Amino acid sequence: MKPALTHVALGVQDVAASVDFYGRHAGLRVVHDRTDGSRVVWLGERATSSFVLVLIEGAAKGASHPSSLLHFGFSVASREEVDTIADGAREHGVLVSEPMWGGDVVGYFCMLRDPDGHWVEFSHGQSLGPHGDGQ
User: Fold this and answer.
1) 74-84 pLDDT, tens per residue?
2) What are the phi and psi torsion angles at 126 (to 5°)?
3) What is the C-alpha radius of gyration for the chain, rounded to an integer number of angstroms?
4) CA distance between the termini of the chain
5) pTM score above 0.85
6) What is the pLDDT confidence band of residue 134, given thresholds at 50, 70 and 90?
7) From CA 118, how far away is CA 105, in angstroms rounded?
8) Fewest beta carbons less than 10 Å away: which of 24, 37, 84, 114?
9) 1-60 in CATH: which number?
10) How confident is the model at residue 2, as a pLDDT?
11) The domain 61-135 is classified under which CATH number: 3.40.605.10, 1.20.1250.20, 3.10.180.10, 3.30.930.10?
């Protein structure tokens, strides 16, 4: 049986701020919330998501920076959606890079910073994800 990717766990300082960020900019919602010594929240696209982002409160700040290329990637259906996400991020002071064309592999994308400094990419035109062009 081939392993299936089910989650990425991410240390955060403030779960509520991260829930708000990923809800506002990525459309994720809380699908599980518990306190087991520290608060742990699962975010998914729907209640029965097969992949979730796990937020664990109390961990150190993120280490993303321009030269690291470390980030989360979300696919969207159009360039216009990338632009709309960038507009909202700019309004909330979390836009790291304006929408741009990164070539055939990268596609059209923008980059945001979550409350802990982790970078989050929103793209259209990559071959990955449900909105890829298959190239």
Assistant:
1) 888 899 999 99
2) -75, 155
3) 15
4) 27
5) no
6) very low
7) 22
8) 37
9) 3.10.180.10
10) 65
11) 3.10.180.10
- Could you tell me which residues come within 8 angstroms of residue 54 by beta carbon, excluding any fewer than 6 positions away? 7, 8, 9, 10, 40, 41, 42, 43
pLDDT digits (tens, 9 = 90+) for 6-50: 788 888 999 999 999 999 999 999 999 988 788 889 999 988 878
Length reported for the chain? 135
Contact 119, 25 (CB under 8 A): no
> What three-state secondary structure class fits 89?
helix
Structural tokens at position 15: 């779960």
User: What is the model's pLDDT at position 94?
Assistant: 96
Question: What residues are paired with 39 via a beta bridge?
Answer: 35
What stretch(es) of the chain map to CATH 3.10.180.10? 1-60, 61-135
Residue found under tokens 């989050």: 120
Question: In this structure, which amino acid lies at residue 92?
Answer: H
